[in-house]
C-alpha cells in the first residue's frame, strides 16, 4: 500500500470476542443456499510487521491462529472478508492440570495461565487485520492468479 489516503486504515485494532464470533459465523454461514462466494473476493491479506510484533508480544504466545470472517463494509452495504488473529499456545504450557497435552488452544479473553509457577489472570485480545486483496493487491506478483479487475488497486 503506497497511498497516503489509506494510511489511517493501517491501525490494527482488537475486537470484542462476540464481534469476532459474529464475523466468523458470517464466513462459515456465507450464502449457504444462495449465490456461491466468489474466490476473487478474498485473494490474500497484507499485514504489517508491527502488527505481528504486537500480537506476538502477548504473554505466552507460541503460535498465531488465523480465522477468516466477513464484516460489513463501511458505507457499501456489503460484506467483505476479514482476517482475525489470536495468540495460541500448547494447553500444557497454560494449564497445569493438562501437563501432557499437545493440543494448541486459543488464548482469547481473560484466562488463568501459569506464570513463574503461579496461576495468574491474563487478558488476550482478538486482532482484526483486514487489509485484504481486493483492494490492496499486488497484481504483478507471481502469486496473483487470474485477471485483475476494478476491485484491485
UniProtKB/TrEMBL annotation:
Superkingdom of the source species: Bacteria
Name of protein: Uncharacterized protein
Organism annotation: Spirosoma foliorum
